[in-house]
Amino acid sequence: QVQLQESGPGAVKPSKTLSLICSVDGDDITTGDFRWSWIRQPPGKGTEWIGYIDSSGKVYYSPSLESRTTIWRDTSKNQFTLHLSSMTPEDTAMYYCVRGWGEVEYWGRGIQVTVSS
Fold first, then answer.
1. pLDDT tens digits, residue range 16-71?
2. Bridge-partner residues for 107, per DSSP?
3. Is 105 within 8 Å of 99 (Cβ atoms)?
4. Burial of 65 (0-12, 13-18, 19+ CB in 10 A)
5. First-residue to last-residue Cα distance in the chain
6. Using alpha carbons only, what angle is made at residue 58 by residues 90 and 3, rounded to the nearest 5 degrees?
7. What is the pLDDT of residues 67-103, one digit of tens each?
8. Is there a contact between 25 and 36 (Cβ–Cβ < 8 Å)?
9. C-alpha atoms less than 13 angstroms from C-alpha of 114 in its C-beta half-sphere
10. pLDDT band for position 2 (cuts 50, 70, 90)
11. Average pLDDT of 13-17?
C-alpha cells in the first residue's frame, strides 16, 4: 500500500514562499513510470494541478503556476517538495501530494494552507 503524507506550515504570509514536503512510504519515487504530483483545492472550487516530478526526475509545471513553482526530490528520504513563491490569499487551499497526473492513484491526506497577514 502506497502512503503519502504532506508536511509543512498551515499558515503563510502574503508574498512569502510556501514549502511543503511529501513523504512517501510503500513505493520508491525513483522507480517505475510514475508521476509524483502536487494538487490543490481552493474553498468552493475544483481541483487545480500544480506540477509533478516523475520517476526519472523530470519536472512539469502547470502553465498558470509555472513562474512561481519549483518541485524537487530528496531520493535519500523518498520525499518530494513543493515551493510556491509570492503567495497571495488566492493561494489558500487544501494542498495534496498524490501519485498520478490527471488521474490520482494514491492521495495524501492533505494539508490546509491559509495565506493571511
1. 999 999 999 999 999 999 999 999 999 999 999 999 999 999 999 999 999 999 99
2. 98
3. yes
4. middle
5. 39
6. 70
7. 999 999 999 999 999 999 999 999 999 999 999 999 9
8. no
9. 4
10. very high
11. 97
Per-residue confidence (pLDDT) for residue 19, from 0 to 100: 98
Q: What is the pLDDT of residue 62?
A: 97
- Helix (H) / strand (E) element for 16: namely none
Total residue length of the chain: 117
CA distance 83 to 81: 7
User: Helix, strand, coil: what percent of the chain each, to 5?
Assistant: 5, 50, 45
Could you tell me whether strands 11-12 and 111-115 are parallel, antiparallel, or unpaired per DSSP bridges?
parallel
Question: Which residues in 72-107 are b (16+ Cβ under 10 Å) and which e?
Answer: ebeeeebbbbbebeebeeebbbbbbbbbbbeeeebe
CA geometry: angle 6, 89, 18, nearest 5 deg: 35
Residue 13 CA: distances (Å) to CA of 24, 25, 95: 28, 31, 16
